[in-house]
Amino acid sequence: MSGSDLRALFRSNDREVRAVDYFADRRDEWDSVAHSLSHLVHTVRADGFDVQDLEAPRSNVLTFYGVGGIGKSTLSRCVARHLSVGLPVEGHWPPLDEGIGPVIPARVDLSRDSGVDFESLVLAVRLAAAEIGQPMPTFDLALQRYWEHNHPGEPLDEYVRRRTRLSSLPGARNLSGQMQSALADVAQAVALPGTMGQVVGQGLRTVVRALRERHHRVRALAECSRFADLLEAAPDHDALSYYPHLLAWDLASLPAKHRATLVVLLDTFEDVGDRVHRDLERLVQRVVWLMPNVLFVITGRNRLQWDDARLEGQLDWAGPECWPQLVGGTTREPRQHTVGYLSAGDCETYLSQRLTRDGRPMMDDATRHLITANSHGLPLYLDLAAMRFLDLYRRSGNAPAVHDFNFDFPALVARTFRDLSPETRRVVRSVSLLDTFSVPLASAAAGFDHDAPAQNLVERPFVDHDPGAPWPYRLHALVRDAVREADSTSDDRWTSADWRRAAQRAFDALGREDKSHRARLVSALRQGLALAHQFALPLGWLEDAAFQYVDDFVWEPIEPPAELMNSGTPTPAQALAVTLSAIAQRQRRHRSSTAQQLRDVLQSGVLPPGLEELPRYFLAECERDLGNFQESLNGMQRVADLGGRLAATARRGLIHLARRIGNFPQAREAAFHLGAEGRQDRVLGDLWWPQGSIALACSAYAVGRDQALAAGQIGEAALSQACLAFAAAFQDRPRAAEQIARADELLAGVSIRWAETHNRIAGLVRDAGIARDLPERSEAVATEAVEAGLTSSIAYVRFAECLHAVVIGSSEALAQARQRLTEDCVNGVEFAYLAELTYLMADEEPPAGLPRGAWLDTTTQVRARWVGLVEDRRRESATARQGA
Questions:
Q1: 383 & 306 share domain
Q2: Are residues 334 and 424 in the same domain?
Q3: Are 378 and 358 in the same domain?
Q4: Which of 112, 559, 754, 770 has an alpha carbon within 20 to 30 A of 215's alpha carbon?
C-alpha cells in the first residue's frame, strides 16, 4: 500500500520528486490472518460448537509481536484495510476464500496515549457489529441499562459522535437505530409501552421475570442462559466486561444469511500487558474469552503470556489448557508469531518505490543494496535512510554517493543527527531526556527563547506525534537510545556537566508547565522523578506535585521507570516514586503490601523533611484499614503534630479512629475544627448515621460532595457520594438506588477501592430485609473487603447482615450475623458500637460485657431511631411481597 508521504513531499522544491509511504508486502503475515479466519469460521460452523460454552479451550487469538519500529502498527492498519469491503491493499495480498463469508474488522489502538479505555473498546466492538445491519437484542438491552446508570442524560449516539476514534467507525451511523429497534421488540414482547428507553425499575423486573419463566414471546432471548443474570447484576464496569458474552450470542443467533465474522485488531498491546497487576489486561482477556466466534488479532512488542499458568489469579483464564494455540511450538493457526524483519526483496522494493523521480527510483542499485544490508530488515532504518537520502539530494541537487549510507542503525542515527543544525541537535539531546514533550517544552529544555529549532525537529520522521497526549511529541525509543550513544563520539558532544545542566533545564521546564490537568500532572511526575533520580537533582517542584497528586483520591498509577524503582542506593526521587506508586497501588492490592513499602521508605530516611509526612500518613491509614488501631493512632497523631500539609487530613483520621471506638462526642468536637480543607461535612455525616439520624447524615454528605465538585475534586466528590448512598440506603430505598447509581458514575473516573466497596455495601443495606439472596451477596462483598485488607468495610457488611436478620425477624439469622460481626470485626472497644446497634435496632438490651458507645444523644433516643428504621423497612418489605 502506498500514498503520498507529506513530510517528505514538503521538504523539497523539486516537483518531479515523488515521495510515498510504502508498505512492504508482509505476505506471510497476511497468510496467517487468512488461515486463522478460515480455521475460526470452520470451528464456529461445526456441529457441536456452542458460543455459551465457557469451559472449552479458546482458539480465536492471533498474535504478532516484535521490536519497536518493525512495522507492527502498519501491519495492523493494513490488515484492517484489506478486510474492509472495497478497500484492497495494493500489492500481492490475495482475497479471502469465498467460503469464509463476510468479514468486518474493528481496529483499536490500546496505547496509553490514545485515550482508549475499556468502555471505548467494548463500544468499538459493538460499532463493528452494527455494520451487519441487524439488532443485537441481548447486548443492547444490557448496554442500555449500563449506559443509563453510568451516563445519565447523555445519549449514546452523542457520546460516540464526540469521540473521533469511535465516530470514524462505519457502524456509528447505525448503532442508535439498531438499539432502538431491539429495545422496541423486547418492550413489545413483554407488553411494555414505548421503546423501553428506561430499562430500570419495574420494566427491567418484568423483562427478567419473562426471561426466567421462558415466556413464549421472549423464548428466543431466554435461550441465552446468562442473560437474566447479567440484567440483574449491578451495571458497573465489571458487569460491562461480561456483556460481550451477550454480543457473541447475538452474533451466533443471527440468521445464516445475515451472519458475518468480526475481526477485532488490538494494537500496541504492550501498554495493556505491562500495567500494574494487569487490571486492564484482565478485562480485555475476558472479552476475548467470552467471544469465541470472533477473531482477535493482537499486535505488540511482547509475546502474549496467557498460556502461562503462573498468571492464574491475575487473569481469569491462564495456562495451556485454556489457550493451547498460544503455546510455543504450535503450528496450527491462529497462534503467536514474531514479526520478522523485512526480507531483502521487500527492502529493495521499499527503497525503489519510496522515492522516485520521473517514475524511476532515485536510489541506484548499489545504494539500495548497501542500505538493505545494513538495515537487517528494520523498517525504521529504511525510513531514516530514505529521509537522509532526500535531505542530501535537496542540498546538492544530485543523488548522494553510496558511501553516505555505510552505517549500522546507531551510526545512521548519529549521521542523521550530525546532519541537523547545531541548534536542532541541542534540542534532540535535550528531549532525549524526556518521554514526551511539546515544542515550548523542548525549547525550554534546550535553553532557547525561540521555537524554530524545536519546530524543525518535530517535523522529522523519527518524532511521533499524538495530539491527544499531555505533551504531543516523542522521540522513537530506538532513536532516543542511539542519540545518547552517538553523543559519546560526536564532535560537539556534551560532557556529563552539559547533560546535567540540560536535565536541570528540562526538570525546571516541567515544573513550570500547567499541571491542573491530571494526565499532565501524572506525566510530569513520572518524567520529573526520573530526571531527579538519574541526575541527583533536588526534588523542588516535585514536592508540591506529589501533594497535589494525593489530594484528590484519583490514584492513576504513576508507573515510574523500572530503573528508578529498582536502583540499588535509594535516592530522594526513588523514595518519593516508591511512596507515590505504593499509595496508588493500594487500591489494587492488600493494604499490608503497601504498609510494608511505606515502612521501608521511612526507614531509608532519604526523603526531605517536608515529604516525610506523606508516607507516614498513608502508613497510618493502612494500619487503620488493617485493624492495627494503636499503630494508626500513633501515626496519625504524629502527622497532626507536625502541622504540615497533611495535618488536617491526619486530624480527620484521628476522628475516624475515635468513631471506631464509639467516642462520638469527642469526634464531633474535633470535627467542628476541620473546616472544608479537612472534609468537615463528610466527617459529620460519618458521625450522624450511627445515631440513626439519617437525614442529617445525607445532608452533610451532600454538602461535602457539592463542595468537592465545585472545587473540581472528583475523587473527594465520589467518596462523599458513596457515603451518601450508604446512609440513604437505611431509610429511603428509591432515593438510595439513585444515589448508588450516581456514586457508580463518579467512581467510574477514579480508583478508590474503599469507596467502590462501600457503594456495594450500600446496595446490601438498601436490600436488607427484602432481597432473599442478600446473605450470598454480602459474603461476596466481605470476601472482596478481606482481600483488600479493609476492616471497616468488613464491619459494615456484617452490620448489613444483622439489619437484614432483624427486619425479617429471624432470631437464628441474627445470632449468626452478630457472631460474625463480633468475631470478624469487634476488637475490644473497636467497632463495638456496631454490635451495640444490632441490639438497639432489635429493641433488645446489649449484653453486659459489650463495651458501650458514647452517643451524641441518649441511648434511648438512638434506640428509638433505629427501631423506627427497622419498622419502616418491615412495612416496605411487606408491601414489596404483596406487589410481587
A1: no
A2: no
A3: yes
A4: 770
89, 122: one domain = yes
Q: pLDDT tens-digit profile of 810-867?
A: 999 999 999 999 998 888 898 999 999 999 999 999 999 999 999 999 999 999 999 9
Check whether residue 658 and residue 719 sit in a common domain.
Answer: no
CATH number at residue 608: 1.25.40.10
Give the whole-angstrom CA distance, residue 412 versus residue 393: 17
- What pLDDT does 707 receive? 92
> What are phi and psi for residue 447, nearest 5 degrees?
85, 20
In this prediction, residue 564 carries a pLDDT of 65
Collapse the DSSP code of 748 into the 3-class scheme (helix H, G, I; strand E, B; otherwise coil) and give the result: coil
What three-state secondary structure class fits 314?
coil
Q: Mapping DSSP to helix (H, G, I), strand (E, B) and coil, where does residue 360 land?
A: strand
Structural domain that includes position 814: 663-883
Q: What is the CATH number of the domain that holds 506?
A: 1.10.10
Q: Which of 380, 398, 416 is the last residue of a domain?
A: 398
The predicted pLDDT at position 448 comes to 94
Residue 318 lies in a domain: no
Q: Cβ contacts of residue 64 below 8 Å, gap of 6+?
A: 29, 32, 72, 75, 76, 297, 298, 299, 337, 338, 339
Q: Considering 618, 641, 662, which residue would you say is the last residue of a domain?
A: 662
Tell me the pLDDT of the chain averaged across its residues: 84
pLDDT of residue 305: 85
Residue in 38, 107, 27, 104 with CA at minimum distance from that of residue 333: 38
The pLDDT assigned to 98 comes to: 82
Say how many domains are in the chain. 5
754 inside domain = yes
**What was the pLDDT predicted at 774?**
92
**Which residue positions in the chain have pLDDT lower than 50?**
1-4, 22, 86, 89-90, 195-197, 199-201, 275-276
427 and 371 within one domain: no
Strand segments (E) across 720-764: none
Which of these, 774, 785, 758, 783, lies nearest to 682 by C-alpha position? Answer: 758
The three-state DSSP-derived secondary structure of 123-178 is HHHHHHHHCCCCCCHHHHHHHHHHHHHHCCCCCHHHHHHHCHHHHCCHHHHCHHHH
By DSSP bridging, strand 2-4 and strand 17-22 are antiparallel
Rounded to 5 degrees, what angle do the CA atoms 542, 545, 549 make?
135
Task: State how far the Cα of 229 lies from the Cα of 233, in Å rounded to an integer.
Answer: 6
Closest to 821 measured CA to CA, from 784, 855, 861, 791: 791
The reported pLDDT for the residue numbered 382 is 84
pTM above threshold 0.85: no
Crossing angle (nearest 10°) for helices 541-551 and 518-534: 140
The whole-angstrom separation of Cα 743 and Cα 724 is 9
Instruction: Identify whether residues 801 and 844 lie together within a single domain.
Output: yes
- Residue 804 vs residues 518, 624, 793, 801, 809: alpha-carbon distances, Å: 41, 27, 17, 5, 9
- Are 653 and 669 in a shared domain? no
